[in-house]
Amino acid sequence: MITHPTATELLDGVIRFIEERAAPQLKDRDAFMCRVAVNALAAVKREIEQGPAAEAAAVERLRAILGRDGDFATLNTALSEGIQDGTIDPAAPQVMAHLHASIVDQVRIDQPNYAGLKTLEG
Amino acid sequence: MSDLESALNAVAGQLGGRSVTDLRRLSGGASQETWAFALDSGRPLILRRKPAGSDSPTGGQVTLAMEAALIQAAAKQGAPVPEVLYVSAPGSDIGEAYVMGRVEGETLGKRIAVGEAFVAVRPKLAFQCGQVLAQIHSIPLEGLPDLNRSSALGELDRFEDSYRRIGAKRPIFETAFRWLRERAPDLPEPVLVHGDFRNGNIMFQPDVGVAAVLDWELIHIGDPAEDMGWLCTASWRFSGRKPVGGFGDYEDLLAGYEAGGGTPIPLERVLYWQMLGSLKWGVMCLGMYTSFATGVDPSIERAMIGRRTSECEIDLMALLERAR
């Protein structure tokens, strides 16, 4: 939406500053927390880039499963509660396919190097 | 000289020396302190001590005296454990604590799962872990202190309660809770379960393999497959590709267990507890996020552990698909 710079350009700049200038000044626990902070910013960047498409696709799948409209939070809550109270069978192929696609999209944002992601990507 | 050093000097004779030296704090969680020191003879020792003024153990933890007694019971079965030299009573100068020999070795999960130093011994580790679990599970229950008992349904109740209180809506967790409840195994012969037997809590040496089993504070009575499933839980593979701790195969773990005298356990039952392990760790990750969100621990590290919940969910999904 906003450009010159975009949000991801700002994040790139902050990450570069931390890694090149700030991180070398730190040691022990602070150095560790600095790496965690950079990881957090990188996750935010991936979420900005990939999150909207992942959420839109999830909403499409949830509409088909639940036969109703709504935003992601509403539909995701309905699916969770339907599985919990037994009115939705999580083993149904359509539901399994949704859970599979959703968690692959989420781990691509949260931890793209996680070994379990490659397992599910096939 | 610190009060603790004086108190340790006073019992040096019972540890096999005349005095102690090089006392230093290694780490300290809220529940236990760990100190390193040496005898005048040079023998390196470890002190595990309850911090003064801390409350009684919670969340199923055993007291340090019980922990020491159970380590000694495991040693009697031949399990590789540190040698317990001295147990100190609550209210004494040292406080509630015990002293054990320091074992040399590696506990960093990633080095064990993929590091160069362990290339030669790595193929033996899963079998050895099976043998060691068989030894721990053979500890006679008679005469043991009063321990917690766990069952699959009991664990599901406990962790579902935590999950509901957090209020997150995670359809994969809902699916896993349902799936595991519908298939909860009966508890056959209950055994002594280590409770935290995973890569990271086992000390390995490149020349021999398993050197010592550590972190006994979650020991309880339950299903022997619980320990095997926790060892195989994907969160403890540290970049390793193999299912047992990142370093070994199921077949070797099960074969080692049988060779060690354990009653054979079907792979399906290990996979059941492995799935429960991913679910438990996922709920714990959510709980750590909660401590960030409520301000109890506002560090970014806590928040980012919350983002690891999805790792547990993707592992659960793989197990659910495998089981179809």
From TrEMBL, chain A:
Keywords: Kinase, Transferase. GO terms for molecular function: kinase activity. InterPro entries: DUF6285. Pfam families: DUF6285. Residues 24-114 form the DUF6285 domain. The keyword Kinase applies. This is Protein kinase. It comes from Caulobacter mirabilis. The lineage of its organism: Bacteria, Pseudomonadati, Pseudomonadota, Alphaproteobacteria, Caulobacterales.
Automatic annotation (TrEMBL), chain B:
Keywords: Transferase. Gene3D superfamilies: 3.90.1200.10, Phosphorylase Kinase, domain 1. InterPro entries: ACAD10_11_N (IPR041726), AGP_Transferase (IPR051678), Aminoglycoside_PTrfase (IPR002575), Kinase-like_dom_sf (IPR011009). Residues 22-241 form the Aminoglycoside phosphotransferase domain. The keyword Lipoprotein does not apply. GO terms for molecular function: transferase activity. Pfam families: APH (PF01636). This is Phosphotransferase family protein. It comes from Caulobacter mirabilis.
